[in-house]
Amino acid sequence: MTASPPFGHGGDSPFGHGGDSPFGHGGGPPPGDDPAPEADAAERLDADLVADEEEAAAVVESDLEQLLRERSDLVDTVRRVQAEFENYRKRVIREQSTLVERSTERLVEELLPVLDSFDGALAHASASDPDQLRKGLDGIHGQLVGVLEKHGLERIEADGHPFDPTEHEAVMSDDGPAEPAVAETMRAGYRLKGRMVRPAMVRVTREG
Q: How many H helices and E strands in the chain?
C-alpha cells in the first residue's frame, strides 16, 4: 500500500484550505481590524473639542463682563465730571455776579458825595448870585469826573483832530476839498479802560 503524501489537499493537513487551520481563510477577522481603538480616539477628540469650546466660551464671557464693568466705570466717571463741571460753572457765575455787585456798590458809594454836593448846591442856589451857582456846579462836575476817571473812564478829545470813524460819529458835515476834521464836539465820547463806550458826536468840516 502506498503512503499518503504529507502535503496533499485532503485530510487534516495543517497547510490545507479546509478545517480549522490557523493559516486558512476561514474563521475570525484578521489582526489589525479591531474598531475599538478608533472609536476611543474619536470620543477623546470630541471630548477635547467640547472642552476647548467651553473654555473659549468662558474666556469670552469673562472678557465681556470685564468690558461691561469698564463701561460702567467710564459712564460713572463721565457723569461725575459733568456734575463737577456744572457745579464749577455755577460757582464761577455766582462769583462773577458777586464781583460785579461789589464793584457797583463801590462805585455808588463813591458817587454818593457827588449827589450830596448836588443836593447842597440846589438847596443854596440863588438866582441873584449866578456866579456862585456856576462855581458850585463846576466843582460838582469836577468831582464826578474824578470819580469816573478813577474807575478808568477817559474822555475822547475830538475838536481839531482828524475825523476817525472808530471814535467819532458825524452828524453834520461841511463840504470842502480837504481831509475831514472835527470842527465841533456836540456830545462827548468816552472810553472805559481803553474800550470804546460810545463815540463822540461831532460836526465834521472839510475846509482847508
A: 2, 6
Q: Is 108 helix (H, G, I), strand (E, B) or coil?
A: helix
| End-to-end Cα separation, the chain, in angstroms | 174
Per-domain boundaries in the chain: 154-208
Q: Which of 48-52, 105-109, 116-120 has the lowest mean pLDDT?
A: 48-52
CB 189 within 8 Å of CB 156: yes
pTM: 0.51
Residues 154-200 have pLDDT tens digits of: 999 999 999 999 999 999 988 877 889 999 999 999 999 889 999 99
The residue type found at 95 is: E
The Cα 61–Cα 195 span in angstroms is: 65
Residue 23 is predicted with a pLDDT of 45
The alpha-helical segments, DSSP class H, found in 124-182 are 130-150
Selection from 100, 196, 188 nearest residue 144 by Cα: 188
Site of grid cell 478608533: 38
Domain 154-208 matching CATH 2.30.22.10: the answer reads yes
